[in-house]
Amino acid sequence: MTQHYQQLITVDALDLTDTDAATAKLQELGATHVETTDGDVYKIFSRLNRKSVPLNHAAQGPQRLTFNKVASFGTMTDQPAEGHAGRAHALLSASGAHRWLHCTPSARLEERYPDSESAAAAEGTLAHELAEHKLRLLLDEPTTLVDRDGIDEEMDSHTDDYADAVMAELAAARETSPGAFLAIEQRLDFSHIVPDGFGTGDAVIVGDGTMTIVDLKYGKGVEVSAVGNPQMRLYALGALHLYGMLYNVQRVRMVIFQPRRNNISTDEITVTELLAWAEDVVKPAAALAIEGSGELAAGEWCTFCRHAPQCQALAQHYFQPVPMESEGSLVPAAPDPATLTDEQIAQIVTWSGELKKWLGKVENHALDKANQGHEYPGLKLVEGRSVRKYTDETAVADVVQELGHDPYEKKVLGITAMTKLLGKKTFDQSVGPLLHKPAGKPTLVPADDPRPALTIATADTVFQPIETKETA
User: Are residues 107 and 57 in the same domain?
Assistant: First the structure.
């Protein structure tokens, strides 16, 4: 676990205007934080971390504090920061904002269900821990990576790329604001906008002019955009609340780094626009969400909602374009597709991917309940299909060899397995020239998909009309 904080030391007399003397004194004491006698708490950055924070930065006009004041800080005595996996999550979390901003009752409805961590989530947690470790090494900050189990070459490579990208953003920020600094895995409190709202910013770069928020997304299932992203905006509000008194921030740049989708998405917003969004959009929705009130609203934000398998609004949303057996029924009449209107077909195709996932969630939910003894009308729990398996593969191989046959098949490893075997760099150099990626099979997607539309050849476009001459 990374040691973020050392002992909190109270200093009777410290001249904050004499940076060199103050820094030397605090380094001698081994402090990372100082509390002055008037109760103000300041976060200390060592000169050894000059790449992170120049201590003697001053701006035009009133001199800025030489140390960053902590907006909210409790007494901590030799207490390490909580690791990624053990962190608490706010009810109205930044990561869930896309959902609860659209569907305000969903936050309280989700409380009914256990928040179990999936294998993908555990992998993402590990990637974040590794990424944090690498960034702290680059900044010469003390850091410890406790467990490397599960870290493969792909994760190692992608987190290298992430760390390089963050450092490039920091270098760019310092071109216009030499005093810009990087805060890693910074807890961000936006409870002045959202009740009890907080989150953790993967990388927050603060300087005069522009503040940059970089978020690592290690998942590969859904491509995430930074454009209008409420999670990133809430992080920005928290960072602005924490650092706004120290720097003249006018714009916020938000960067999503999603290496397994080759996706780097960016967005920018002025502080004025951000604060207006907070007042006009977030505060009203958060006031409803914290009470569990408002109207259920179904949409693509339902994908990761734990209430989705039992949500009536979502069921009605998915079956809306499909004729039902009777009014108020959720049983589709399953009409011939040729009898559906173009509008119905377009809606069904647009929702088909999410619909399949939702149906799977409903089935899994029902199976879990049935395994606990719950009975559903018209359904029963039975033993499913199974396939035969060898009880001892080694013994089977021995028997087959005694019969004069080879029990093993030789097959070239797939691309993913071969990449892991050789390493990405070696694979790209040696095997890369032997790869071929054929054109993908045509597929229907929503009109706002960024891929260019295919031009389909038809008889009208291929054949020219034959002109006929009139005969006398």
Answer: no
Assigned domain for 302 exists = no
CA dist 186 and 182 (Å) reads: 10
137 with 64, same domain: the answer is no
Q: In sequence order, which residues have a C-beta less than 8 Å from that of residue 356 and are 6 or more positions away? A: none
pLDDT-derived band at 17 (thresholds 50, 70, 90) equals low
- Give the residue among 241, 167, 250 at the shortest CA–CA distance from 208: 250
In a domain, 381, yes or no: no
Q: 215 forms bridges with which residues in the sheet? A: 256
Q: Which of 256, 255, 254, 250 is nearest to 270 (CA)?
A: 250
Rounded distance between C-alpha atoms, residue 414 and residue 19, angstroms: 59
Please enumerate in sequence order all residues whose Cβ is within 8 A of that of 1, keeping only pairs 6 or more positions apart, or say none: 80, 81, 83, 144, 146
Domain co-membership, 133 together with 199:
yes
Residue 41 gets the label, from left (phi > 0), alpha (psi -120 to 50) or beta, of beta
Radius of gyration of the chain (CA): 29
CB 42 within 8 A of CB 15: no
Parent domain of 319: 307-371
Q: Which residues contact 78 (CB under 8 A, 6 or more apart)?
A: 6, 7
Domain assignment present for 100: yes
97 and 50 within one domain: no
Order of strands across the sheet that contains 68-69: 9-10, 33-35, 41-43, 68-69
Question: Greater confidence, 320 or 198?
Answer: 198
Going by C-beta distance under 8 Å and a sequence separation of 6 or more, which residues neighbour residue 245? Answer: 69
Contacts of 409 (CB under 8 A, 6+ apart): none
Strands 249-258 and 181-189, how do they pair? unpaired
Judge if 97 and 242 occupy the same domain: yes
Q: Do 71 and 145 fall within a single domain?
A: no
Range from 34-48, 153-167, 208-222, 271-285 carrying the lowest mean pLDDT:
34-48
pLDDT of 28 higher than 50: yes
Residue with tokens 């009898």: 339
Domain count of the fold of the chain = 4
Query: Do residues 454 and 442 touch, judged by C-beta distance below 8 A?
Result: yes
Tell me how far apart the alpha carbons of residues 286 and 234 are, in angstroms, rounded to a whole number: 12
* 453 domain-assigned: no
Cβ-based burial of 410 (10 A; exposed 0-12, middle 13-18, buried ≥19): exposed
Task: Give the DSSP letter of residue 51.
Answer: T
Q: Which two tokens stand for residue 243?
A: 């650092």
pLDDT of residue 108: 94
Tokens of 150: 């599960």
Q: Find out whether 285 and 293 touch, Cβ atoms under 8 Å.
A: no
